[in-house]
């Protein structure tokens, strides 16, 4: 997920060595904890902010507004509060800032130290949130979690690509994405469970449980070695080879080690990824790496991921129904992400993008019309049980449309269109824009709902129409295209073709098969 998780060249060679060593299993645990902790944070805050004891402790004015707005109150503005949204969104601004530092630390000092640090600040954030007695502590806790997310999202995907046997590289990275959706679902389930705690302290349990994946990551990073690539890049070839032998469970790693050395040399030659990416021949990559994360967030998905329980409660559902509905949308998210992963190489990216886009638009327009009919502009009204069920169904279909298109493809496509010489810059742009707009949507949603009312759903639908048209005209199919042939695809494109010089097609070949080893 965030952090760029897919690798396209993973299938590569078959080196000698046992495939499933203890290290590979540990690596899976780290992958899972990185994805889980990211997903857990996405999913946990909405449920917590919909819990009455949490609101009455930290946001009494919001709670009062919520209680007073029965059938004669304006539903749209029930939860509107900048500080309440800051509780959710502050994490992403911290993650954005931290990821710049994280990329330097990960490159200079290794992946392991970044993961260890991520686990520690993450644990600190979970503790601060769990014991918080003031808004300041709550937000400090979220900021601390955000720093953890920034570091984990930089280090974990790279660690995985470098540790996994070439054959499993793609699969392990995709595992990170699925773990993220599972993290969201687990958060929804935990919220449902803790909302039943009689003492009214359930929200503390929800927030503190973020410490579990954090501990997994701390323990994992204490016991795991750094990656051979990173040790090599820091000038210790002997040690790097020893680690590679340990990881692969065989003495005979010469071929793979030679490839690592070559890859490391190639990576050193890429001195100016930021200058490279501004050259006209990389215009398609630059534009797409900027627009894809922007569009991914403008689908409005995080309105659902962050605020589903709040939204359902806003529209008049009870506490239980709101939390259960979030569990349902969370489950649809996991299953549909798996569907995407299974079908993406057969159906291709464009089919999924276009179908998912149309499905999302239809659902968003239907939600807008339903809310308009029941709550009109004044925000006064209520949903019948049947209408509430239909609303949850529409939202599930919308989430499914996202989860087999923009969800995973928002990370896959930018990573597979960038050759080595621009890859680190392309990834950094993708991650930063994604985090920035995750923050913006997280912060602005409740205010936008209050001022735009049902029109908010038309607003997001409008963007999905624009992005679907963009895909139709500007994103060529990249299914089964090796990275060294990507320029041929651009050259043949009706619009991007003019940016690609004839020699670029031949130039591209020197990176063959090596690019996935030196992300950082
Ligand atoms: C997005 C996240 C979103 C998640 C939902 C990811 O691809 O980047 O912002 O919360 O999908 O599963």
The end-to-end span amounts to: 16 Å
Chemical compounds bound to the protein: beta-D-glucopyranose
Give the overall silhouette.
globular
Radius of gyration from CA coordinates: 23 Å
Largest sheet: none
Proportion in helices: over 70%
> Which band does the percent of strand residues land in?
under 5%
Task: Furnish the topology, listing elements before pairings.
Layout: H1 22-49, H2 52-58, H3 60-68, H4 82-109, H5 111-131, H6 135-163, H7 169-194, H8 202-208, H9 211-223, H10 228-233, H11 237-248, H12 254-269, H13 273-278, H14 283-298, H15 301-314, H16 319-347, H17 349-375, H18 385-403, H19 406-417, H20 420-452, H21 455-474, H22 486-491, H23 502-507
Helix pairs in contact: 1-6, 1-7, 1-9, 1-15, 2-3, 4-5, 4-6, 4-20, 5-6, 5-8, 5-9, 6-7, 7-8, 7-16, 14-19, 14-20, 15-16, 16-17, 16-18, 17-18, 17-21
Bound molecules: beta-D-glucopyranose.
